[in-house]
Amino acid sequence: MSGADFSHRNDVGGLFRAHYAWLCARLRRYLGASPSVEDIAAETFVQLLESPGLTPIREPRALLTTIAQRLIYQLWRRRDLERLHLDQLLPMDPLDGPSPEDLAQYSQALTRLDQTLDRLPGKVRATFLLSRVDGLTYPQIAAKLGISQRSVSVYMTRSQALCAQHSANEPLNRPPLTQRSA
């Protein structure tokens, strides 16, 4: 470990001690008494620790807030996606619908897909989610992220290739659910 890495770890450790409680309190304003508060606060510091620490942080609370808000938005998008999939399953008659085991498998598959998408760099993942979850067009995505439409196209190709790889490895690629007998 280089001296710069050690210094960065010490700086982040100091920020953690000084601002963790404050960040948790701030996150509670957005999330209430959710158990996600402490997870998001901890992940905020993990991301800060993993980022290159070459420049001093002049406004640590602003930076921590920005990182935490990004994580909250990811959490909300994930919940919206889960809710969308569950809403598509709920109108079914309980006897004709998926079993609790099938629902658990779908939830696990969504979690694995989310973990797969987390391997993508930030703008690539954001491009994919804006397209697939929010339904934005390539020009809208380019304007929102401040990138070219060509970059949007490249990012979508990259994310779709990763999703195709995920699908090839996913054990839930099987025919639709069969009806349970009454």
UniProtKB/TrEMBL annotation:
SUPFAM superfamilies per UniProt: Sigma2 domain of RNA polymerase sigma factors (SSF88946), Sigma3 and sigma4 domains of RNA polymerase sigma factors (SSF88659)
- Transcription regulation: is it a keyword of this entry? yes
Per UniProt, the keywords (alphabetical) are: Sigma factor, Transcription, Transcription regulation
UniProt key word Transcription regulation: yes
A GO molecular function assigned to this protein is: sigma factor activity
> What Gene Ontology terms for biological process does this UniProt record contain?
DNA-templated transcription initiation
Q: Which residues form the RNA polymerase sigma factor 70 region 4 type domain?
A: 112-159
Cite the InterPro entries for this sequence: RNA_pol_sigma-70-like, RNA_pol_sigma-70_dom, RNA_pol_sigma70_r2, RNA_pol_sigma70_r4_t2, RNA_pol_sigma_r2, RNA_pol_sigma_r3/r4-like, WH-like_DNA-bd_sf
Q: Please state every residue range assigned to the domain named RNA polymerase sigma-70 region.
A: 15-80
Q: Which domain of life is it from?
A: Bacteria
Per the record, the similarity remark reads:
Belongs to the sigma-70 factor family. ECF subfamily.
Protein name, as recorded:
RNA polymerase sigma-70 factor, ECF subfamily
Protein species of origin: Pseudomonas lini
Q: What broad taxonomic lineage does this protein's source fall under?
A: Bacteria, Pseudomonadati, Pseudomonadota, Gammaproteobacteria, Pseudomonadales
